[in-house]
Amino acid sequence: MIKISFPDGAVREYESGTTSMDIARSISEGLARNVLSASVNGEVWDASRPIQEDAAIKFYTWNDKEGKSTFWHSSAHLMAEAIESLYPGTKFGIGPSIENGFYYDIDTGDRVLSSSDFAKIEAKMKELAKQKNEYVRSDVSKADAVAYFEEKGDEYKLELLEGLDDGSITFYQQGAFTDLCRGPHIPDTGKIKAVKLLALAGAYWRGDENRKQLTRIYGVTFPKQKELTEYLELLEEAKKRDHRKLGAELELFMFSEKVGAGLPIWLPKGTALRTRLEDFLKQEQIKRGYQPVITPHIGKKELYETSGHWEKYGEDSFRPIHTPKEGEEFLLKPMNCPHHCEIYGHKPRSYKELPVRFAEFGTVYRYEQSGELHGLTRVRGFTQDDAHIFCTPDQLKDEFLNVLDLTMHVIKKLGYENFTAQISLRDPENTEKYIGSEENWNRAEQAIIEATQEAGLETVTELGEAAFYGPKLDFMIKDALGRRWQLGTIQVDYNLPERFELEYVGSDNQTHRPVMIHRAPFGSMERFIGVLIEHCAGKFPLWLTPEQFAILPISDNQIPFAKEIEQELSVHDIRGYIDDRTESIGRKIRDTELKKIPYMLIIGEKEAESGKVSVRKQGEGDQGTMSVSEFISYFKELL
RNA sequence: GCCAGCAUAGCUCAGUUGGCCAGAGCAGCUGAUUUGUAAUCAGCGGGUCGGGGGUUCGAAUCCCUCUGCUGGCUCCA
Fold first, then answer.
1. Is the CB of A136 under 7 A from strand B?
2. Rounded CA gap, A504 and A461, in Å?
3. Protein A366 CA to nucleic acid B77 C1', in Å?
4. Is A472 one of the catalytic residues?
5. Which positions of strand B lie within 7 Å of protein CB atoms?
6. What are the residue ranges spanned by the domains of chain A?
7. Which fold does the domain A66-238 belong to in CATH?
């Protein structure tokens, strides 16, 4: 007998060799029906795998992240089975579960798959699911595993086997399909009731662009048809929030084929929004001792040779600009920091003036591969809310904490709650990607780790995500479709001051090297606003929105009164316009609702006579009537 | 850049297997209507079917190529 302990602390005895499924069944049939996998001593196992010794056990169902991931991983196998049966000879790469579903990378040889094949594959998957085939786990020796895939001619699985140790290799088989797999899997395919293949994409084998590109098929499955329907509706809803769609509808920005891909053009309303956002940060920075500076959009190639950017990115960038007579070479500015280093270095600096903080909304241009461009979130020209702080090593931690405070202030002001703070460090396996000494890197990485700990910030750490000159603290926020974007960033840099030979004279009358902090709370105005649009579905915070009200006269007779109100509101810095079209009030309301103008002031004969306005809130409806001054104080309360 | 897909009026979309002057709704313009909380009515204008090349008696439709866009991959100072 073995002792099985449960999450609630209970301990029960079972025969050795019992399975989680047996245990679940001993508790209730309902539980047994829902169990997809189970944690056994902290490891996720098949529910059907025999347990031989005392264990702490926890069941996973569709309501657990682990249960879903087991379900989707098994679904990937089911899809592979369907594909193998429809297209014999297909070779298989890897097929994991992901955040929302699963994918499988396959090599179909000369056959080109396209999304028009999805229906056929889905139908086959459903047919195979109905057979309720069990997922059968078996231990296989490395030699047998190699023999199996050699026989099958699957070089991808053979390559995966190379990295595995004999004795740790398992196969899973369901129906006619056998795969090299660590598991775990759900009990049988019958649990998969709803199937949808979503997308097809090329994906390089093992993520290496020099290797063969496989076909990746993304899909999602559910235990109930209804859940699939709901999920697809959710995707439709998310599409409505897409900043590219809303940006066009609300006339915030545009792109032009003639101007060029990835070069956003800001329309008047988008500019109003962006300017307000910039002004907010500019004022905040003045309060915190930043000095605004302005630098040119181009700089000599030598500048970026000094900084290291040319060596690191030059070959894959926009080509240099040449002067026609002198033959000088200039680059479109890809970063503001080299310019700011020059500002620091233009005169001798004393420790007494440190820290100095140069701030600039600097527009930079970077070549991005055409396939990477994406609305406002991945572009070739964008404006960073950049600043560089030059300080003594002693001041570094305080300065970092000040920047962190400013960044959190910005994030909170815009109402982001679900952000991730990511510490981006060097890739220890690949240190030649970075400039600067081991010592400088260690100091910079330590500074970030210590400061975030001191601030009590919850962070995740990613290796290999650092900039080439220093580690970063990045703030990541998800867009409507769950894609994660880096917005704000704070970077500690010991290396550029060295490259630019920046100095200050200390109290000891000796020259010292300053430390530099690169920081951008928004990151880029373009990306920030893109994500903001999706975050608030185009309904911007009142202080930020381009137009705060629309006055809707019921007939032309109320236009003079409308003008009086507009005048009075503008005195109080409340911005908006009069819809003076000769249209029905129903039409005016509808159009204003669709433009997501927060407040509608409806005035008819009654209001004009009594000097009041009928207030309607976007998305919520009639709020009743009030005098103009009452509206002004009501409105100001909301700012 | 790579893989797959898409590109018809300002926008959203029709346009059967290649075949009469390429259609609709919304938007726009003109006129009428002066309206009480999400679309008043009528009339009119608008497209070299993304650009270029080819196949064909004939191309929005088939082929090639370029550009742009979508979803991924790689990349992201």
1. no
2. 33
3. 9
4. yes
5. 1-5, 11, 32-40, 67-77
6. 2-61, 66-238, 267-297+333-535, 549-638
7. Threonyl-tRNA Synthetase; Chain A, domain 2 (3.30.980)
What is the arithmetic mean of pLDDT over A566-593?
Answer: 96
A150 within 8 A of A180, measured Cβ to Cβ = no
Please state which of the four CATH numbers 3.30.70.240, 3.30.930.10, 3.40.50.2300, 3.30.70.1140 is assigned to the domain occupying A267-297+333-535.
3.30.930.10
A422 is catalytic: no
Nucleotide nearest to A593 (CA to C1'): B38
* Pair of tokens at residue A37: 């996998």
CATH superfamily of A2-61: Beta-grasp domain (3.10.20.30)
User: What is the spatial distance, in angstroms and rounded to an integer, between the CA atom of A383 and the C1' atom of B67?
Assistant: 26
> Residue A1 in contact with residue A11, Cβ under 8 Å?
no
**For residue A429, is pLDDT > 90?**
no
**A264 preceded by a cis bond (ω within 30 of 0):** no
Place of tokens 């009537």: A625
Q: Which nucleotide is nearest to A242 (CA to C1')?
A: B70
Q: Give dist(CA A322, CA A53) in Å, integer.
A: 74
Question: pLDDT class for A417, splitting at 50, 70, 90?
Answer: confident
Predicted confidence (pLDDT) per residue in A247-281, tens digit: 999 999 999 988 999 999 999 999 999 999 999 99
Instruction: Name the band, by pLDDT with cuts 50, 70 and 90, for residue A442.
Output: very high
* Mean pLDDT score, A590-609: 96
Please report, rounded to whole angstroms, the spatial distance between the CA atom of protein residue A596 and the C1' atom of nucleotide B68.
29
CATH number for the domain running over A549-638: 3.40.50.800
